[in-house]
Amino acid sequence: MKNKIITISRQFGSGGRTIGRAVAAKLGIPCYDGELIAMIAERSGFSEAHLAELDEHSVKRQPFAGVAERATQSSILQTVLWNTQEKTILDLASKGPCVIIGRCANHILQNKFDCLNVYIHADKEFRANRIVTVYGETDDSPLKRIQEKDKRRKEYYQRYTNKKWGSAEDFHISLDSGSLGIDTCTELLVSLY
Amino acid sequence: MKNKIITISRQFGSGGRTIGRAVAAKLGIPCYDGELIAMIAERSGFSEAHLAELDEHSVKRQPFAGVAERATQSSILQTVLWNTQEKTILDLASKGPCVIIGRCANHILQNKFDCLNVYIHADKEFRANRIVTVYGETDDSPLKRIQEKDKRRKEYYQRYTNKKWGSAEDFHISLDSGSLGIDTCTELLVSLY
């Protein structure tokens, strides 16, 4: 138990990443998210694009899992990715205080590091508006994009942690960013740290 | 949407009631819990002891529901109690800012009042120690008492709200009182209000 790590799990579009980055900036500690993928890519030899596709998707949701052989190949890749990711997150946490977004970091660091585990959620209307503003429009409706991402994150989390996604018990603090506002959530977490 | 009401849902032994009372005292607003039962009793004509027994138990868990007739009688009593409780909570909320502990107040006041809905939880070890300190020993082990109370609250909440008990999404803020501490939870809620 050393170093104080903030892990942030979040619903798609809830602003969890924005809050995590703002908290890290205010505390003057690093925040790992996209950077983490690049580090994993470097270690595993996967291409960054391939990793981004695999990332936080469960095997069943793989678009290329049409035949048994490909499904098996995908499953092996997922396991390799998970193991590399687990090691990377443990290494990052041992370097010093930081914020880690997503990737079941709360589960990976459990009983190993002093963590503040955070869950950020918001209602669908708030998230739908936010993803259009932050990520832009796509052919799919915002609600469809949210539903798909929610389903993937839920499957991914449950597969690797054996816990229910979105259960308050898994976190020290859960915040509704839609009602409380992103700035208030940021301030609360900074004051708690 | 008027008056700012704090509703507190909590796991048995998590200190939710203590936090609610402390928050209300610091804010100088009333806190309704045991007092609420007395008010309901007064309105409904039930005895206070009978109400305390019915309170937050679902029909299936009623100890006297051994035969169909008694189960039906119990179900009718539960419905009467729920309706009286709903009306009482709405009346209390309309009087002015307050803290309301338990009784699905978050659900009853939804879309009717400006609420801060809070969920307080903690791990079983913390709660087991706490209930012995606060409520004393009984013939049943602390863990058994927690399991039974958790089951009752879950059934009660799900019966009347049609939602999952313990889901972060139902609350603006969920706090782990075991890790964060009761004083920190109190301060956080006061600062949020």
Strand content of the residues of chain A, in percent? 5-15%
Measured between the Cα atoms of the first and last residue of chain A, the distance is 16 Å
Overall pLDDT score of chain A: 86
Shape of chain A: globular
Biggest pleated-sheet summary of chain A: 5 strands, parallel
Sequence of strands across the biggest β-sheet of chain A: 2-3-1-4-5
Number of strands of chain A: 5
CA gyration radius of chain A, whole angstroms: 16 Å
- Count of individual helical segments of chain A: 9
Structural class of chain A: alpha/beta
What is the chain-wise order of helices and strands of chain A? EHEHHHEHEHHEHH
Oligomer: homodimer
Q: What share of the residues of chain A lie within helices?
A: 55-70%
Largest interface: A-B, 18 and 18 residues
Question: Low-confidence runs of chain A (pLDDT<50, min 5 residues)?
Answer: none
Describe the structure.
The structure is a homodimer of 193-residue chains. By secondary structure, chain A is of the alpha/beta class. Helices cover 56% and strands 13% of the residues of chain A. A five-stranded parallel beta sheet of chain A has the order 2-3-1-4-5, sandwiched between helices. In chain A, helix 2 packs across helix 4 (68-95). The longest helix of chain A is centred in the middle third of the chain and has 28 residues, at 68-95. Chain A is globular, with a radius of gyration of 16 Å. The mean pLDDT of chain A is 86. The A-B interface holds A 119, 121, 166-169, 171-176, 179-180, 184, 188, 191-192 and B 119, 121, 166-169, 171-176, 179-180, 184, 188, 191-192. Strand 5 (173-176) of chain A pairs antiparallel with strand 5 of chain B, so a sheet runs across the interface.
